Structures are given as C-alpha cells and as structure tokens.
C-alpha cells in the first residue's frame, strides 16, 4: 500500500516538474540585450516607438512581438519582427537570455 502511494506521488510530481520544464521563461519573459553597438528603437506589439539604448535589455513575454528599428521614427528596420517564440528558440542554455549583435545577428547569451 505504501509502495502504491509513493509510486503515485512520484508520477504526479514528475508530471508537474516536466510541465514546468517546458517553458521556464514563460513567467519572467526572455531578456534580450542590445549588444549591437548602437542605440536602436523598438515597437512592442505595435506600441509607440521607444529608444533601446545600447547595453540595455528588453523583456519579451509570451504572445509579444517586437519590431526593431535603426531610426527614431521606427521606419527603418534594423531587424524584422521578432517574437517570444523566436527568442526562446535561440535560448539554447535555457537561462532566458539572448542578445542582439551588430547587423541583427541574434544569439544566446
């Protein structure tokens, strides 16, 4: 009887933990560092154009997209639109951090 209870508890705990491992960054978001050597501008989910100073970070949460621009009017694209899913795919070590390098090169942090 005790064996069955322990086995059930292990299975239940394991399934909870495996669900948490699916997306460790979902709650806090993905941190995206601007290491492009430039001040850039961005629009998150189509919002107003906002400066993104070199060496500062943005936090991108699930269901968010960000357009990255090289001008203060957000008309000249530096990169195409990027989503939480794209940044998450680049986060190979699962520490919820990626960076944007010169010429819109994206990599794990």
How would you concisely characterize the structure shown here?
With 109 residues, this protein is an alpha+beta fold. The protein has two helices and eight strands; from the N terminus they run H-E-E-E-E-E-E-H-E-E.
Helix-strand sequence: HEEEEEEHEE
- Structural category is alpha+beta
Helix content: 25-40%
Mean pLDDT: 85
Task: Give an overview in words.
By secondary structure, this protein is α+β, with helices and mostly antiparallel strands. The protein has one domain. Helix content is 26%, strand content 35%. It contains two helices and eight strands; from the N terminus they run αββββββαββ. It has helices at residues 2-22, 84-90; strands spanning 30-34, 40-44, 50-52, 57-60, 65-69, 77-83, 97-101, 105-108. The strands form two sheets. The protein has a four-stranded mixed β-sheet. The protein has a four-stranded antiparallel β-sheet with strand order 3-2-5-6. Strand 2 and strand 3 (50-52) form a beta hairpin. Mean pLDDT is 85; it is low at 1-20.
Secondary structure: elements and pairs:
Elements: H1 2-22, E1 30-34, E2 40-44, E3 50-52, E4 57-60, E5 65-69, E6 77-83, H2 84-90, E7 97-101, E8 105-108
Parallel strand pairs: 1-7
Antiparallel strand pairs: 1-4, 2-3, 2-5, 5-6, 7-8
